[in-house]
Each structure stands twice: as structure tokens, then as C-alpha cells.
Amino acid sequence: MSDHDSRGSHESNPLDVVPMGGGIGGGMAHMEAAGAHEGVENAIELKEVEGLSQGRIILRRFLHHRGAMISLIILVALLLLAYSSIGFKVFGLQIPGWWKYQYTDITNNSNNLHPTLSLWPPRFGAHPFGQDEIGHDVFAETMRGVQQSFMIIVVIGVVSTAIGVVVGAVAGYFGGLIDALLMRLTDMFIIVPLIILAAVIGHYAAGAGPFVLAVLLGVLVWTSLARLVRGEVLTLRSREFVEAAKVAGASHRRIIFKHILPNAAGVIIVSMTLTMAAAILLEAALGYLGLGVQLPDISLGSLISTYESSFGTRPWLFWYTGTFILVIALTVNFIGDGLRDAFDPRQRRKLSRRAKQEASSSRPAALIETMNKAGQ
Amino acid sequence: MLTFLLRRLAASLVVLLVASYVVYVITCFSGDPLQDLRQSTSPNKAGLIAQRTALMHLDVSPFLRYFIWFGGLLKGFTGHFTLGVTSGGQAVTGQLTAAVGSTFQLVTGATLIAIVIGVALGVVTALRQYTAFDYGTTMMAFVFFSLPSFWLAVLLKEYLAIDFNNFLGHPVVPPVVIAIVALVAGVVAWSITERGRSRWWFVGGTMVVIAAFLTFISLTHWLDNPGLTIGGVAVLGVATAFGVSYLTAGKENKRSLYAALTTALVGVVLYYPLEWTVFSSMSMPLFLFLGVVAIAVGALVGWLWGGPDRRVSMRTGGVVAFLTAGYIAVDRFMQDWNTYVNSTYVNGRPIATIGSQTPNFDGDFWFTYIDRITHLALPTISLALISLAGYSRYARASMLDVMNQDYIRTARSKGLTERAVVMRHAFRNALIPVVTIVTLDFGALISGAIVTENVFSFQGMGDLFIAGVTAVDPNTIMGVFLVTGIWAIAFNVIADVLYSALDPRIRVTS
Fold this sequence. Notes:
The complex is a heterodimer. Chain A is mainly α.
């Protein structure tokens, strides 16, 4: 990681942004353009972090990001709730939870199917989120939905990151024909509207279960990451330490994985987080269209789809699931934002007005060069 | 430049062709197109299966069947262009044409709204960085960005539409609500202005205007039978003239202000003549033509007034003319509103939640488009809200970046007014990256609208596409895919052109 901070500060001007509509994962990445007063801010920051390693500095910045930390706590609490309440399966072994119903249980009608949850007086009741007309406990169903949706976004994140990193790194490192071919392949995935492919594939994978669906979706959404990694590798490739490794006789694979990719870790991690935030919306949209996870299994999207028709009479069937999707997407987005601020040395915490005024702004000529590159 | 574009187009077309083959084959293998027939109890089951097999060439392997479809494309050279037939036996081209039209209206409207509001929000939050308004807007942007589009759409449909229709039945705003709205507007006004005496004038003025407007609406039941009348057009026109002239030319440029006022006056003078002549036989091409004429007249007025910079006056005149013409058109629509609401088609509940138009609706241009607009309202709002969350972030980032540049400091230090610095030096440069992003996004939105269309049963591309997926009908899906694919490629290329046209530092080389 030793090369990280000295990286050119002009690489992520807002033009690098992959537009969000084009696919998943573009998201809010790199939306925040940096103020251009690196010099003074560096001096201020350097005093604070004297003697710390690069990883420590990043961790420190992340821990100081209030929005990200609050989001992280909320997300962890939510996952604990989801996994502890109805339990989960590990290698076919059912770990029981503290909640009395499973999402498959048919329960007796109570409280007129209405939710029993109330904030004041605090009360959980027999069916906090109510029941549907068959008698399913909506709380257990929602918890199962959170588990499945979360599993899906993690798998999508891992699969798409793996493919994106390899494609981007190979294209960027080798250049030439390989680069051209891989980028045309990426174009192909970008041109085909994601929802079309996802729907066709979701339809195809419907019988195979949520895990297969997640893997297939992951195979579709790696494009923006591949482009980002390629850009990063292109700039790192010509750096001295890579030259040194080459001279020392390192193999291509060793240079890519040992020397280049660790320096692109920031971009990769941030992009992966934002991909996951977008993935939960994609999964939900597919579920809503009836093309995602199929019964008897449940995801948050499919729950909404199942209960949409009863909105008029029992809107809470809709409220709780939607809120959980919103909360997961929001917290993951905020965590991604915090990670980006932590990794990108130009993303600073708020400085005092005086420090800002003193900050000199000097735009390097390299910016123009980058812009020229971006326009090609 | 041209070679660059041609090369890009050619590469994209090759990619599109390969992708189309992949999509076609995947679609064919995604399910059983005969499923509904296999389960049918019709005595003619075998006949129906044979009929559909022949219709969709199911006896040909998907790997080769693609070329039957592709052959239909190639027949375009001999004038027999065809995209095949759906599993129901209708021509895809016919269905596609109707669907593209309504989706285009939806996406364009939503994008325009999102650009205007999103960029405005982004610029204001950037200029007022780290204020309560900035934090509030940022938070809201994140929330909208994280909202599942269909969920937002369903909520709008179930709450906003129903409540708003109820409200229209008895359009009176309770005094408490007026007070709250005015207070909120005051807080927003307070947080976007800088310290000083004029701040309190601005805050007070905003609150009074909002409260007065809402009280007026309540007392006169204005929404029952809305209308601007010639007086309203005049007031709005003059206000626009002052506002636009200030923003684009500044207080000092009197010629520009006179040009703007003259243009507004021309609009007011033409109010009755337009009403009596062309408005009764209006059609969409004529409507658009009148809009262009208005801009030309405004530019002409600006040219005649001249001033220190003739182009500035022309621009001001054009913008004011366009907006004034818009007010006159809105007024004309409003005149038919009451009749529309009380007609048997809508029965007093004008904001529609389903479909892209009232079936069997019959009326002149104004009625037809009132009907279209009431159907477009909700899907447009739900698409626009999500897009504008993103745009406001991009615009804010870009504006912040520009405001920290050397040339902004130079502009300030040579004594330019803050308006000139922001509007002339910063805003224009900040728009460059935003334009690129918006263009690319517009190219992708057409497929993003699929889910929203589905919620509102809007008869557009989404509807067609879902039908294609569930019926395992490759021809329909390929039709949608072609349109969205070509659309995306076109806007990618447009983004490149705009980018290099707007930023002289970018020179594409082939």
C-alpha cells in the first residue's frame, strides 16, 4: 500500500463516472469532486497521521466518517436481527432462532391480521408485522427476505468484483489487441440493457434457486468495475515500481496481483460496495416483476410482488419490506461513500473556513491530459 | 472528428449485432413458448401447437432461427422491413411504434424535469456548501437514490394520486397547512441566503407570496376552474423578463431587460389573436412550430434592442419568449380542465394511475393532451425523483470543483459581480461533465423505465418487454432490444460529440 498516497491526485475527476443509468454500480461513485487545495490540506492532515501506516490512515478516516459508521451499526444490527430471529442453515444444519415462527409456518389468525408492533407502549406482540391471509407471519417472512436479499447482494458483489478485476487488470496491463477485445466485450454487456439480460436470465434461472440467480446476475454487472480497474491499471502500469519489478524478472501474473492490484484496492473496494447497493435494488426490481427469486423461497423483492395486490386493504405488507430494502440500500450506499472518502486522499473531512481560504488551488496540467484521455 | 464518430458507430454496430445473437439465443432457451398451449384443454390443442410452431418457426434450431429474424432486418433494403410477428401473430413493428412513442414521452418529460430541478439543486447546494440546506438535500438525494423505483411508484400511486384527487374534489387548503407550507418555504429561503439585511426581506417575501398564493387558491376555488387569463400571463411574463434578464445579463444590462420586457409584451398582445385563430385547429406539429416561432421572435426582439452584446439580448429574448408562449399554452390547457374533470371519462378524478391514455377517448388537441398529461404525471414524477437525486449530486460535485479553480478567483479579483462569476464563469463550465452524464443516462433510462411502466400499466416498451419475456417470444424481445440498444449507442455518441463541442480542451483524434 506504500504507493497509495503518492498516487496522482487527478485520476478521479468527475468525468470518470460511469453513469448510473447505464448499469449497476456506477452509483454515486466519484460523485464528489474534490476541492483542489491539496497542498495545505495535506499539511494539516499529515500532522494528524504522522507515523501511521497507510492502512491505519484509511481505517482512521473511515472510522471518523460519521454517516458511514452510523450506517455500519444499523446494517450490522439489522443483519443480527435477521439471522438470530428465525435462525439459518449451515451445511444442512438448522440453527434455531429466538422467534417462534418460521417463514413457512401457517399460523392462526390473530389481531385481525393487523401488525401488533407498537412503538409506544413498546410492544412486539404475536405478529409484529401482521399476517397475510394464509396465515404466514410477515415478520418471519421479512427476516427471511433480508437474509436472502443480503446473500444475493454479497454473491453479486463477489462475483462481479472477481470478473471485473480480472478483465480490467488484464485489459489495462496488456493493452493492444487484448484490451480492444475485452473492452468490446464490456461494451456488449453495457449495450444490452441490464434489466433485459437479467430478466431473461432470471427467468431461465428461476427454478435453480436464489444462489444461482445471484451468480448469474454477478456475471452481468461487472462492467463498470472493469472499466474503473482498467483506468487505474493504465496509470499504475507506467510507474517506477512496476518497471523495477519487471527488471527484477517478475512474471506478469506476479506484477498484476502483487504490485498493481494492491494499489488499486481503494477503487475496487468502493466500487464493490456501490455495486452491492445497486444490486439490492436490481434484485428487488426483478423480484417485483416476478422474474427474481421464486416461491417457495422469498426475497424482499418477491415479497413486495406477492403482496402488491393487497395494498388497498393491508398496506403494511408493503411498508415493512420496502423499508427494509430502503434501509439496506441506504446504509450500504453510505458505507460506500465513507470508504471512498477514506481511500481517496483528495476526499477530506470538512476543514475550517480559515483553512479553506488559505488553501491554494492549483490544478495540475495533468488534469487536462486526463480529460483528453477521457474524451477519447 | 467524423472518422472518429464513424469508427465508433461501426464498432458499436458490430457489438450490437453480436449481442443481438446472444440475446436471441438466450431468450429462446429461457423457457417453453408452447407452455400455455400444452396446458390448455382446447379440443384443437394439437392444431394450435402446430399453428404457433409454424408461426414462430419453432421447428428451426434457435442458433439458426436467429437468421430468419435477421433476414427480416435485411429485407429493409428492399422495402419489406420486418421484425417478425409476436406469438399472438401481430407484427412487432406495429406494436413497437406505439410503445416507443409513449415511452419516449415519459422518458423525455422525466429527464427534462430531473435536469432542471437536479442541476438547480446541485448548483445551490454547491454555492451553499455545508449549510443545513446542503446537508438536507444530500440526505434526501441519498434516500431517493436508494429507493426501489417500483416501491416509490406504488406509494405515489396509492397515496399521492388518491389524496390529490380527493383534494381536487374540494380544493381548499386549510389555514394550518398554509402556515406550515409558508414556514417551510421560509426555512429553505433562510438557509440558501447569506447573512445580511436582504436575507430577511427575501425570507419574508417568500413566505408572504406562498401564503398569499395558497389563500387565493382556497378562497376562489381556483383549482376547480383554473386559468391564468391575460392578466396572469402578463404578470408572469414581466416577472420572467426581470428574472431571466437578471440571471443571464445582469442588472447593468438595460438593453437586455428592455428586450425581455418587449418580448413579454408581444406575448401578451398576441394572447387573444392566438386564441381566436390557430388555437382552435391545433395539432402537435403546429404546437411545436409555434414554440420555435416564439423563440425566433424573441431572438429578433433581442437583436433589435442590441446592447453591449447583441447575443446576450437575443438569448434573453428567446428564453423569455419561449416561457411566455408556455404560459399562454398552459392557460389554454387550463381552460379545458374543468370540462375534462367533469367529463364522463374521468368523473372528477383526473390524476390517472393506470394506462397511458383513457381508452376510447375522443377530443380535440387540448383535451387529448390533458388526458395524456394526467396519465403521464405519476410515472414521470417517480422516474424524475430518482434521476434528479443523482443529477443533483453530479451537478454539486462539478460545481464545487469549478468554484475552486484559479480562473474563478481571477474573475472575482478583477471585480466581477458574484452573479457574473457564478453564471458566466462557473455554471457554464460546471455543466460540461453534467451534460455528458445526463446524455448517457438518458440513453439508459429507456430501459430503466421498464419497471416504472409496469407499476402504472403504462403501455410502453416495458409492457411489451415483460409480455415478451413471459411468453418466451424472442421476436418481441429483440424488437425492444434493438430500440434500446440503438438508443443507447446513439446517446453515447451524442455524449462524445457534446463533450468535445463544449470543452475546447478535448479534441478527439481518430
